[in-house]
Structures are given as structure tokens and as C-alpha cells.
Amino acid sequence: MNGEGTTRRGLLIATATAVGAVVATTAGQSFGWLSGLNVLGPRVRGRGPQSLPVNTTAEEARVLDVASADTWRLSLTGPTGTRTFSLEDLRTLPQTAVEVPLACVEGWSSSADWSGVRVSDLVGLVGGSTTDSVRFHSLQQGSRYSVTTMRPEFVRAERTLLALDLFGEPLDLDHGFPARVIAPGRPGVLQTKWIASMEVLP
Ligand SMILES: Nc1nc2c(c(=O)[nH]1)N[C@H]1C(S)=C(S)[C@@H](COP(=O)(O)O)O[C@H]1N2
Ligand SMILES: [Mo]
What is the pTM of this model? Predict the structure, then answer.
């Protein structure tokens, strides 16, 4: 065996070890190759609260106070008018559990167990129908993530939720407490956190 062969083999072993370490520390999650090797924040290492990466924290979004306040209410507007719901009110409605991955354009994707109220149920409570679109407003102001419009095929889907829980616990503030959008098949960027209001569009 010549020197070059030994060196190459050593390199291969070192590389395989590094890959193994990355796979082990990011179990259950998939990341871009380079981001997995970088020493960056929790968003790429899968160590956010509740074992899910965080895109924007509640502090960065400047919603810490409003999102954690007992006075939070969901405002829901539709053809029959506007209704408001406390978090307790939402918890008395039928809850649905779904496993849905969050996929972020920043290069990570991570599956999670969510539960909450079907968006279609909420739409029905204010006189909306299965052909309606819904606009969601976040407590977060002045960001491109503050408002999302959802087309009817997602609104009526049985697995589209106003999610209240993540892995069986109330959402962490950084994951959108008290309520966020979880709609299977939509990109992470549209899974709006810290929902303040929903409007059934005319
Ligand atoms: N209000 C609000 N919602 C948001 C964001 C945000 O910055 N503000 N980021 C979005 C993006 S880009 C992603 S990938 C997901 C990330 O959700 P997570 O931080 O709970 O993992 O939230 C989405 N919802
Ligand atoms: Mo994202």
C-alpha cells in the first residue's frame, strides 16, 4: 500500500465520521449539507424549543408581550359577522392532530406533530363555505410574514389547522403561541405564527 492510498483512506474515514456525527446530532431532521457542518444558531441545528428549528423568534418579531398576554383573543370575521375567541374557547372546540413537516427555504425541513382547530370549522362558525379563501393576520407588524392569504383548497382541507399544540404541548412562544397556521403542502414561509385575526374573504 503506498502513502497516497493510506492518506486517501484516512480522509475517507474522517469524512464518514464527520457525516455520522452530523446525522446523529440532527436525528429525524434533514438539512442542507453545508448548513449541517456549520456552527450556526438553533435554526439550522434543530435545537430550537420543542426540538424544532425556529425561523424568527418572538423577540425578533417583537411580539413577546402581545403573544403572551392573557388578553389575547382571536378575531374571526365572516359573512355572519365577527366573533372573538380566547385560547380557552379555542380549546373547547374539536381538536385535530396532524404530522406535518415545516420546510424552510433557508435549507431545513423538520417534521412535527401539531394539533389544533380545523380552519374549516372556524370558517363555518362565521358562515363561510368550502369555496372561501381566508386571510390570516399575525400579531407581528410590518413584516412580509404578517399577512397570509389561503386559497379555498387549503382552507377546506381537513388537515389545515389553526394549531395550538406542538408535540402535545402548547406552542412555544417562538413557534407561534398562542396560535399559528399549519397547512400541509404550503411552504414554511406561509405557516404564519402568532395569529391575531382571520377573515373569510368575500
Ligand atoms: N409571523 C411570522 N410567521 C412566520 C415567520 C415569521 O417570521 N413571522 N416565519 C415563517 C417561516 S420562513 C418559517 S420556515 C416558519 C418557521 O416556523 P418555526 O419558527 O416554528 O419553525 O414560520 C413561518 N411563519
Ligand atoms: Mo422559512
Answer: 0.81
User: Domain boundaries in the chain?
Assistant: 2-37, 49-201
Nearest ligand (C-alpha, residue 111):
1
Cell reading at 142 = 410590518
Q: Whose CA is nearest to atom 21 of ligand 1?
A: 54
**What is the Å distance from ligand 1's center to 107 Cα?**
13
Q: Which residue has the cell 444558531?
A: 41
Q: 102 CA to middle of ligand 2, Å?
A: 8
From first to last of its 202 residues, what are the pLDDT tens digits of the chain? 343 444 444 444 444 444 434 443 443 444 444 444 434 444 444 568 998 999 999 999 999 999 999 999 999 999 999 999 999 999 999 999 999 999 999 889 999 999 999 999 999 999 999 999 999 999 999 999 999 999 999 999 999 999 999 999 999 999 999 999 999 999 999 999 999 999 999 9
For the Cβ of 183 lying below 6 angstroms from any atom of ligand 1, the answer is no
Which of 63, 100, 145, when mutated, tests ligand 1's pocket best, judged by the most ligand atoms within 8 Å of its CB?
145
Distance of CA 55 to the CA centre of its chain: 9
* Fold exhibited by the domain 49-201: Sulfite Oxidase; Chain A, domain 2 (3.90.420)
What are the distances in angstroms from CA 4 to CA 8, 15, 38, 77?
6, 16, 29, 71
